[in-house]
Write a structure and sequence with these properties.
43% of the residues lie in helices and 19% in strands. By secondary structure, the protein is an alpha+beta fold. The protein has 2 domains: 68 residues, 2-Layer Sandwich (Phosphorylase Kinase, domain 1), CATH 3.30.200.20; 189 residues, Aminoglycoside phosphotransferase (APH), C-terminal lobe (Aminoglycoside 3'-phosphotransferase, Chain: A, domain 2), CATH 3.90.1200. The termini are far apart.
């Protein structure tokens, strides 16, 4: 607080990864302090350095960092998730594509410690198929096979947000801005993968084949992405998410409802 001349610290949220406070600058403007928890400071710090590198272009602005504390722009608008859940999903997809376009603009001197995308997928490749529900093991095999095929044909690598979903994009007076990147480096097509299985609480929407195809069309048209590669990463990431949830003991019903239709769209692309 002294370092950045801040006043009136108000606790806003505690997550498994951080504590977040709203603070005032000079008694006028709001800002945020995000204090990373020690157990995850390595991964979260990598994401924070990427967020800082974006320079506020398509993402929340990081003003400064010190140790495990990030001093950044305060965002209190609604999320793209709220728009999608309230009947404005097509608009949300367009906005998400715009955010990706801004994040993927060429910038020099990217952070040196970004996590390779192939390494991010290691949990998918290491999982024992018997950990999956018996009726879904064919889905696991498809996801792992598609992922291997994608990595066997590499694309030019760029810095990736790595967790770009609807509720990680917030409205502001500067437009829609991303928060909470993971800090990856790899194929740009992966950036939109998580959007296909989001927003939370809208499984019926996410599993709709028309919506899956409309999203793939939008990302191909607006970002110049290869449509089949987009759908491949969407399916592979959904499988990866199942592997993570199985380890953590979380339900996997949402991904298992979406995944068959993602794989069907991939096969038809």
């Amino acid at each position: 607080m002294i370092r950045w001349s801040l006043t009136k610290s108000t606790p806003v949220a505690e997550t498994p990864r951080s504590w977040i406070f709203r603070v005032e600058q000079n008694g006028r403007n709001f800002a945020a302090l995000k204090i990373l928890k020690p157990a995850v400071s390595g991964e979260e710090g990598r994401g924070a350095r990427l967020l800082s590198w974006y320079g506020g272009d398509g993402a929340a602005t990081v003003f400064d960092m010190h140790g495990d504390t990030i001093f950044m722009e305060w965002l209190d608008g609604g999320t793209l998730g709220e728009a999608a859940r309230n009947g404005r999903d097509a608009e949300a997809t367009t906005a998400l594509a715009t955010v990706v376009s801004n994040l993927h603009r060429h910038r020099d001197d990217a952070p040196a410690d970004l996590l390779p995308l192939r390494q991010r997928f290691q949990a998918l490749f290491d999982t024992d198929v018997r950990a999956w529900p018996h009726t879904a093991r064919d889905l696991y095999a498809r996801c792992a096979g598609i992922a291997l095929k994608l990595f066997d044909k590499p694309m030019p690598e760029i810095p990736l947000h790595g967790d770009l979903h609807h509720d990680n994009i917030i409205s502001s007076d500067r437009g829609w801005l991303a928060i909470d990147p993971k800090g990856l480096i790899g194929d740009p097509h992966y950036e939109v993968a998580n959007a296909f299985r989001n927003p939370p609480g809208a499984t019926k929407l996410a599993a709709d084949p028309k919506r899956i195809n409309a999203m793939a069309d939008a990302f191909a048209a607006r970002l110049g992405f290869n449509r089949k590669r987009v759908l491949g990463f969407a399916a592979a990431h959904s499988g990866l998410s199942v592997c993570w949830d199985l380890v953590d003991g979380n339900p996997v019903t949402t991904d298992l409802a979406i995944l068959p239709n993602l794989l069907s769209a991939y096969d038809q692309a």
